[in-house]
Amino acid sequence: MSKPEFFTYPGFGERARETLHYSQAVKVGNRVEISGQGGWDDDLNFPDALEEEIEQAFRNVERALAAAGASWRHVVHINTYHVGGFPPEVNETMGRLNRHYMPDNPPIWTEVGVQSLGHPRMRIEIRATAILL
What we know:
With about 130 residues, this protein is of the alpha+beta class. It contains 3 helices and 7 strands; from the N terminus they run E-H-E-E-E-H-E-H-E-E.
């Protein structure tokens, strides 16, 4: 059995590790799991537009994956958590970004509506699993 290796990324990831004592990604063997990524910037600001927040969450997933030596092309599974229901722009944006980031490997996906997330301004969180080939 491989020993777990923990990773974080500069900016928000480093601050989260320091203040909340958690990592952005863990790699065990060829499997990478990332913690949920929201649509924040490095100063924990969130865009006003929901579409922009979802786009930023995808970029943060990319950062967490990269910290552990993975990328979107390795992703096999995503879970997304949504506050505020599912207005049309949610699935339109999710579908567009899934196709953009994972054009050759449509992952399995579970989409869940929730009452709240880890920050009062968060409306989306994305968690991913990647398998390194």
